Prior knowledge:
This protein is α+β, with helices and mostly antiparallel strands. Helix content is about 40%, strand content about 30%.
Amino acid sequence: MFREVLNQLFLRIDGLWGALIMGVDGLAVEQVSSAAELDLESIATEFSTVLVSLLRSSRELKLGAIEELTLHVEKLVLVARWISEEYFIIVALSADGNFGRARFELRKAAAQLRDQF
Length: 117
């Protein structure tokens, strides 16, 4: 089920390099990648530290739940969307990839996966 959802993202998002489902503990549940040189699991593990810190801050400030977080860097774009309080889905796409489509498809994928978590 998880791999199928991630594979569907590759069919729908131009410029997608990789996608994975990860827990806040930094452990990947499932991942798919089309770029051998991209260590998406390591990137997501480091990114999860930031996500957890922001989640904690959001709760302390009573701002509500974080839904999505985006990081644009020179070589790629990372988009993360929460599935549950403990799990999120993250994609990496090329800097010129379809960012808007990635956000839309992540919203759909998170909703589809929510019942599994």
